[in-house]
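WARN retry 2 of 3 for item q-0093 after timeout on previous attempt; input resubmitted unchanged.
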Amino acid sequence: MNTKLFVIPKPNPNAKLRLFCFPYAGGSPAIFMPWVGLLPNEVELVFVQFPGRGARMTETAYTDMQHKVDELLTHQAYITEKPFAFFGHSLGSRVIFETTKRLVALGAPLPVHLIASGSRAPHTNSNKTQTYHLPHDEFVAELLKLNGTPKELLEHKELMELLIPLLRADFQIAECYQAQPVSLPCPITVFHGYDDIEISAEQLHGWQDLSKHKIDIHYFNGGHFFINQCKEEVISQVNQVLRKIL
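OK item q-0093 returned
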């Protein structure tokens, strides 16, 4: 696949299944690199890389959910050419929902499973105050509170000048996008951090409204970024889901 949108760290043309991984707001494919070599041999990992990060750092980041989905669907043939599943964390979870919803509308092949990690259900109201438009210092202070960006990076002024436009763009989508609820024919597994106090029980269980199947919810120690804090446990649980599919 000759495109910057997809990063395939270990190509596996004989794979039975592709797992497309979508990062959180401000995240890049690098957050999934520890997964390489730790999933079943029949699975090919594909990391999704939107404008503004990695090899696409010089491209302007999207500020609208539909633009992300539009770009993905220009590669619909590749995404759907063999059985596939979606994993998304935080904003990535909302992207995989919206993408799947569009695939349903197109009558296209659908993911065999969605793993929605660290996110409220996309159709539920956010309790958070919008921050993406705050002045620079206030925005950086909000990033520090989230505990998802290393403090050393936040204090590196030159690097932050490069990253702030991407972070603002991603946060604009994360804070402004709210889905129209649709009950998908795909099974959904939800990952949640015990200490993620920004997601209420109602927002978490709201994922049930979005699947015709009974959802599974798995809890992890840690806050919103348990995906980084509990890598081994997360990978183990992803493997359990995948083995049921294969």
